[in-house]
Q: What sequence folds into this?
């Protein structure tokens, strides 16, 4: 048997046995938390990033069931330990690792949230891969802490929602305050006219027309089907006419008939 | 005396112009109205008007731009902004471009009358200096 490498072959195409130190050397320099888990769900190996992530030394991690090793707040819920508590049945980390063992098939970037004793609630992305270690199946688990990215994403969505609310509020103020001012102003004039016994019919009609305009604005608000904005001075407000499925070209259709 | 009591109202909403025109006319002012900035500038050119009320959101030339133009040709004029909606940033900008003060619609007509009265008192004080 020759050890000569043929075309399309690499050194990894030959039977290879990795030692514990070999694996540790490879995973230690990875920028995310990586651990090797055995069939009892115990941590066999953990890289430097796992220690940094849960703020524990290497010897406080290896040999413990994953929840206890990582410091999950639920690992002591039941006297039997990690995996037996009420919350453990919902634990996605446990489910993902178990499934990887059962089906010998990995999972890619499964999202979950976990609360740890040392670092509180974190949003995680879990990836698993089964492999043979000392003739037994083990799982290579990588944990990506995406809490900051999730928080940024949530803050961004909140900001976008707030912007939309402010723009809608702006449109409501702009649309409603115009007729409201006319109604209030002509009402004040009307009170004065009543006192002097000289009521101007046009002013009363204006109050009615503007009240009608208010009703049309609320109808349009109820028929908003899309988010369209327009410039208002240096800011933007919701474009009520474009956003609503109701489009009334003549705000006072009865006015001409009188 | 009437020469001192001219008021210009600029708003693209004709019912608002009709309302304020009646309110100020009843109070003894000579009222000029314009639905656009361009019409307003023409009126200002032809008449000696010192007190004005501008809507902020108008097409083509908005109230801020109009105020800037008027202040460049009539720096002693007293101009108020009336707006249906404006952010705090825009309201502070109002003072920067030369507005004396601003009012948010709906504004009480008696508030506007008091404002006009104190504006003319100010104009008369300046004239005596």
A:
């Amino acid at each position: 048997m020759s050890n000569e490498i043929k075309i399309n072959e690499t050194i990894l195409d030959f039977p290879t046995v990795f030692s514990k130190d070999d694996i540790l050397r490879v995973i230690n320099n990875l920028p995310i938390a990586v651990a090797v888990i055995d069939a009892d769900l115990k941590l066999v190996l953990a890289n430097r990033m796992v220690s940094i992530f849960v703020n524990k030394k290497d010897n406080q991690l290896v040999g413990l069931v994953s929840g206890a090793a990582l410091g999950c707040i639920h690992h002591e819920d039941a006297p039997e330990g990690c995996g037996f508590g009420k919350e453990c049945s919902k634990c996605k980390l446990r489910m993902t690792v178990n499934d990887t063992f059962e089906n010998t098939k990995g999972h890619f970037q499964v999202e979950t949230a976990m609360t740890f004793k040392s670092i509180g609630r974190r949003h995680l992305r879990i990836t698993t891969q089964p492999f043979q270690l000392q003739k037994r199946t083990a799982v290579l688990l990588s944990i990506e802490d995406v809490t900051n990215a999730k928080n940024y994403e949530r803050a961004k969505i909140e900001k976008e929602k707030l912007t939309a609310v402010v723009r809608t509020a702006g449109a409501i103020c702009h649309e409603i305050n115009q007729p409201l001012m006319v109604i209030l102003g002509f009402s004040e004039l009307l009170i004065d006219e009543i006192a002097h016994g000289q009521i101007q019919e046009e002013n009363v009609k204006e109050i009615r027309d503007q009240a009608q305009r208010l009703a049309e604005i609320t109808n349009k608000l109820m028929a908003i089907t899309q988010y369209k904005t327009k410039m208002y001075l240096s800011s933007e407000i919701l474009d009520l006419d474009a956003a609503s499925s109701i489009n009334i070209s003549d705000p006072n259709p009865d006015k001409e008939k009188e | 005396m009437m020469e001192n009591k001219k008021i210009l109202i600029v708003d693209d909403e004709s019912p608002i112009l009709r309302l304020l025109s009646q309110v100020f006319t009843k109070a003894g002012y000579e009222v000029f109205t314009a639905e656009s900035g361009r019409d307003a500038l023409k009126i200002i050119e032809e008449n000696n008007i010192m007190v004005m009320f501008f809507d902020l959101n108008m097409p083509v030339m908005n109230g801020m731009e109009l105020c800037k133009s008027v202040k460049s040709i009539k720096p002693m004029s007293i101009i108020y902004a009336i707006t249906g909606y404006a952010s705090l940033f825009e309201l502070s900008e109002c003072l920067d471009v030369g507005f004396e003060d601003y009012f948010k619609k709906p504004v009480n007509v008696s508030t506007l009358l008091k404002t006009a009265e104190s504006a003319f008192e100010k104009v008369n004080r300046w004239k005596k200096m």
Q: What stands out?
A: Chain B touches chain A at residues 13, 15-16, 18-20, 22-23, 26, 56-57, 62, 64, 84-87, 89-90, 93, 104-110 (CB under 8 Å).
